[in-house]
Structures are given as C-alpha cells and as structure tokens.
Amino acid sequence: MLSQLDQHPYTERIERMYNNYGQSYHEQRLQQLMEQKQLKDFMRMYSNLVSRCFDDCIVDFTSNKLNDKEQSCVNRCTLKNMKLNERIGQRFAEENAKLMEDQARMGQ
Questions:
Q1: What are phi and psi of 67, to 5 degrees?
Q2: List of residues 6+ apart from 45 with CB closer than 8 A
Q3: Across the chain, what does the average pLDDT equal?
Q4: Inter-residue long-range contacts of 83-86, CB under 8 Å, 24+ positions, other chains counted
Q5: Rg of the Cα trace of the chain?
Q6: Which residue of 27, 65, 76, 85 pairs with 23 in a disulfide if CB–CB is 3.0 to 4.6 A?
Q7: Environment class of 28 (CB within 10 Å of its CB; exposed 0-12, middle 13-18, buried 19+)
Q8: How far apart are CA 37 and CA 50, in angstroms?
Q9: In the chain, pLDDT over 70 holds for what percent of residues?
Q10: Where are the alpha helices (DSSP H) in the chain?
C-alpha cells in the first residue's frame, strides 16, 4: 500500500510538509493504517463476543428481556472472554518483548 503512495505526484511535497512536524508522511500514513487495523480487530472481537455469548446464553425468545439465567450466563460469558483476550494480549506483549530483546542482542 505504501508503494502506491510513493508513486503519487504530491508525495514529495506532502513528505516535506510532514517533516516539518517531526514525522514523515509515510510514518503518519503507517500510523493511520495501524490505527484502522486495531479498530477493525477490536470490532471483530466485539462482534464475535456478542455472537458467541448470544448463541450460548439466549434461549427464550418469548420475552423482550433476559431472564435471570440468561443474564447470569451473558455476564459469565462476557467476563470469561474479556479475561481471555486480556491474557492473550499479555502473552503477545511478553513474546514481543522477548523478540525485541533477541533482536537487540543480535544487532550488537
């Protein structure tokens, strides 16, 4: 995607403008793309959580409110999935830190 930006006729002018603010155009664009991906990932995770908990917990469609059993199930399901995602994030951060340390040692 960044290669398409390199070919744009105004890229050099925009690059100079962003350099005046301490970041290159490519760095700004990369940051925007990363933020968009993070938002998409979050929305996908949220959608999966809602779908999974709904499918597992909601069984009575005769009322417009959750009964006590359904409410309890939704609360447990949500908490369980939030803890799971938190743990996955922690493990990812740990592995990323190890990778960065290994790369720093190899670069010395």
A1: -80, 175
A2: 85
A3: 84
A4: 85/45
A5: 22
A6: 27
A7: middle
A8: 20
A9: 78
A10: 2-6, 11-19, 25-57, 68-107
Q: What distance in Å separates the CA atoms of residue 73 and residue 88, rounded to the nearest whole number?
A: 22
Which residue is it, tokens 């199930």? Answer: 73
Residue where the block lists tokens 């959608």: 47
Tokens of 76: 């447990």
Buried b (16+ CB within 10 A) or exposed e, 58-97: eeeeeeeeeeeebeebbeebeeebeeeeeeeeeeeeeeee
Q: Tell me what the mean pLDDT of segment 79-89 comes to.
A: 92
State the greatest distance between any 2 C-alpha atoms of the chain, in Å, as a whole number: 67
Q: Are 74 and 57 in contact (CB under 8 A)?
A: yes
What are the φ and ψ backbone dihedral angles of 8, each rounded to 5 degrees?
-70, 135
